[in-house]
Amino acid sequence: MSTTTLSYVGAHKLTLQQRVLCLIGLLLALLFGPYIAVYFKDGGIPDKFFNFPATTPGDVKPAPTLIMTVGISVLFIATMLLLIVPRLFGFKKPPPIARAAKRKARATLPSWFYIGGIAFAGTVVFTTLHLQRPVWLNDWSLLPLWWGFVLVLDGIVYYRNAGRSLAATATTELIAMGVLSVSGWLLFEYFNFFIRLNWYYPFSGLLHHDKFLIYAVLGSSAFIPMAFEWYQLLCTFPGLAVKYKFGPKVVWPLWVRMTILIVALAGLVASAFYPNDLFFIVWLSPLIILAIGLGMLGIWTPFISIKQRGDWSFLLVFAPTFLFQGFVLEGANWLSVKHLANGEASGFNPAYWHYCIPYVNQMHIFEMPLLGYLGYIPFSVYCWIWFIAMAFLMDIPTTFSLSEEYK
Q1: Model confidence over 169-219: pLDDT tens digits?
Q2: How far is 303 from 395, CA to CA, in rounded Å?
Q3: Which residues, 6+ apart, have CB-to-CB distance to 255 below 8 Å?
Q4: In 43-110, which ranges are continuous DSSP H helix?
Q5: What is this structure's pTM?
Q6: pLDDT tens profile 247-280
Q7: Is Membrane a UniProt keyword of this protein (predicted)?
Q8: In 3D, which of 189, 175, 188 has the Cα closest to residue 222?
Q9: Helix, strand or coil, per DSSP, at residue 14
């Protein structure tokens, strides 16, 4: 199923050129909305406002409050219940014939599984030992770390999916994911300035500024591939192919979608004025704006099947992908430095990051506050939506899913 096929799922009168211009307009609104807000709020962009990478935290963040802790906890629990026990939310039990999916034939583990495993495990061991040399390995550790893990996941998918995987069957698509992943993540680095640095890189000074920029670009290339590899792996479990297939249809009229889109954009703009109170909006607005915009332009998204058939499979199988990956990311990050008794850290990893998130800075798992992991769920879906949007603009052919159950 190609991008071209997925681009015309509804009866729309807009031409292809008009669709492209509308999508570019949404992207420009994402970029310049908060920028214009800061410009008028402060009478111009403050000096060193876009200082990347930040080595120190931004403004002092509000401490956790009971209402925020309870509110976010309830939302987190509800999200987990939707993923684990969807029948609580009106999903029907799949009929026996739908549940009786056959297990696919197994292939042998491919060579890149072992190459990726050596690269990933070797880098984890090296950074965990906090060795200063070789300096080049510290400087570029993200590449073997994250791409090694991508190859490991892909090898497992290849084994469980009868010799089909992104690396084996859709190599061009995997490369495209890596390229488009860079812009997808740097957009969040950009938004981080407007919420006054919810994360920063205390050891980034170990690298020259220009070198760190290259490092950030290359390292972030693995984010979208990671999400899709987890998705492909989850798709190899037959039960998930039908777990969310018989859910409630959700059809919102145009005025509701337009209202949500405007509110999401307004929230992103307002985050420049209220960076602490609206810190969470940067994880929601890009997803909401692009998903609604793509749907209105007749471009396929994982939300389409919910509207048409009540099939939530695409969305809910993909949603936890970066939650799983998040534990891997945060664990490797935490292990890469020494944690001192006074709460500070020391080490040689220039990519090490630390969080200072308002209202949720408590009960940490690794560096991330426990409630902060909720942000990984919308970020998972954002990875897919961003890839769809960029693939459409650049006319990149893609299958979006290699799982037969989902086609």
Answers
A1: 999 999 999 999 999 999 999 999 999 999 999 998 888 888 888 888 888
A2: 21
A3: none
A4: 66-84, 96-99
A5: 0.92
A6: 999 999 999 999 999 999 999 999 999 999 999 9
A7: yes
A8: 175
A9: coil
